Each structure stands twice: as structure tokens, then as C-alpha cells.
Amino acid sequence: MAMVFNKKGLKRILGHLMSLGKKEVRYLIFLIVALTVLLLGKAFSMMEEDIGEQMVAMDRYDLSLKENSGNAPMDSMVSERERERLLFEIEERIVKYLFQIPDYTYMSSLETYFRYSPGLLDEIPSCTPLEKGDYRLSSAFGYRVHPISGKRKKHMGLDFAAPKDKQVYATASGTVVSIVRSKTGYGTHIIIRHRFGFRTLYGHLTKILVGKEQFVQQHELIGTVGSSGDSTGCHLHYEVSKNGEKIDPIPSLDLKRKIILELIER
Ligand SMILES: [Zn+2]
Fold this sequence. Notes:
The chain has 2 domains: 94 residues; 117 residues, Glucose Permease (Domain IIA), CATH 2.70.70. The relative contact order is 0.12. The two termini are 30 Å apart. It is built from 6 helices and 13 strands. Helix content is 37%, strand content 22%. It is an alpha+beta fold and 266 residues long. The N terminus is likely disordered. Helix 2 runs antiparallel to helix 3. The site of zinc ion has 5 residues, from loops. Zinc ion binds next to loops. It comes from Flagellimonas hadalis. InterPro entries: Cell_wall_metabolism_enzyme, Dup_hybrid_motif, M23ase_b-sheet_dom. GO terms for molecular function: metalloendopeptidase activity.
């Protein structure tokens, strides 16, 4: 687009814009917004199969949303309604996208959008399962020598070393789908099913404070830290899975906090 305009042309267009009335400006904004939705909508339906390409389109969406929201005059009912419609359309696509993404690496392209709809973050594991100051990250996601078997094995979650009985919180709203009390493996543990294909697991607990099939809110108290099952000391083993695959939860731990802070700073 920028290639088409030279300095002179741009000046002329700006001149035309300056001479437009309020009503005409609103109409122009309406047209730009409608065209953007139409074009990007088309781009999206074409790229549905390819997440990589979809990310590029998502960035464009973010940009257009930002630009359009900045430009829309607040006193105009038309553009306000149009803005709402645009947000709704984008939300629909984001929801679809959230179901498809395999892990958190694709989440960064959504960060701009989350600022417009932070409520979605309540449904995505996007914070720590323990309170700040209550834990120390003692084992990362990935290959390590298992502390009990001595064998090299993939560690499918994060370990938070924490004192016994420290409170454990759900990292997103969802339904408790599994409560197990075992002397081996994860020991006493909880699995919560969230929206968009996410699940979280909280292992080696002492107490479980929720029931099966119970709906819990994000940050709701669900149990307490212990050392049940195959564990060498008090810690919480925390897993996140997406569409059946266990993924690294590290990028999720400060996801919500980061976006909320950006919102406050605005
Ligand atoms: Zn672990």
C-alpha cells in the first residue's frame, strides 16, 4: 500500500481528509473497519489449516484492532457499534485459534488481543499454582536424571519446592475431572479440565479440598503441598497439557500478570 503513495499524493489525501465533515469522517472510518474485517476474515478462512500462516494474520488483526480502536470517535454510535462487532468477530476467531494452538509459544501473538478481553485469561492456565514467596522452582520441564530411579527421563511438568501444607490454587477455571489418592507416581493429585483443550495436574499433595466434577475458579484453593507418591521432599509437581500433549508451563506462569500490568499502565 505504502508503495502507491508518494509524498505529494499523501499530502493531497491529507488535504482532502481535513476538508471532510464529521459525518463523512465517521462514514470513512466505518468503511475502513468494514473493509478490514472483510479482508482479514477472508484471509483467516483461507489459512485455517496452517497455524504458522495464521499467526501472521493474527498479528495483522492485532494491529488493525489497535488502529481502529484508537481512531474511532467515542461519540459516534455507528463506529462504536462497529467496534463492538469487530471485537466480537475477533473474539470468535481467537477462541477457534486458542483451541488449535499446541502450546504457549503461539500465545505471544494473542497478547495484544487479551488486553481487550482479559476475561479469557481466567479460562487459560496463566498464573502460578502457589502464592508468590511460597515456593522455589526446583525442576524444569524436559530431560533430567530422575531423583529416584537415577535414569535419564523426561520430566513432564515443573516442580515447585514448597513447605508442607502451603496452599495450592487452580491456575484457571475449570472442572475437576480426576482425584486420585495413590502411594506411588503423582501420589495424591488433582486433574482439572479447562476450556480450549487445556488440562492441569497438581501432584504429591497432602490434602485435597475439592470434589470430583466440581467447577473451580481460577485462583481457587484446591489442596495443600505434600510429598505423597514418588517424591523425595515436599513439592508440588505441576503439569499443563494441551490437546492431550504435555507442554512446558513456564511461559504461562506470568502470562496473566504481565497482561494485567500492561492494562493498568495504560
Ligand atoms: Zn515433578
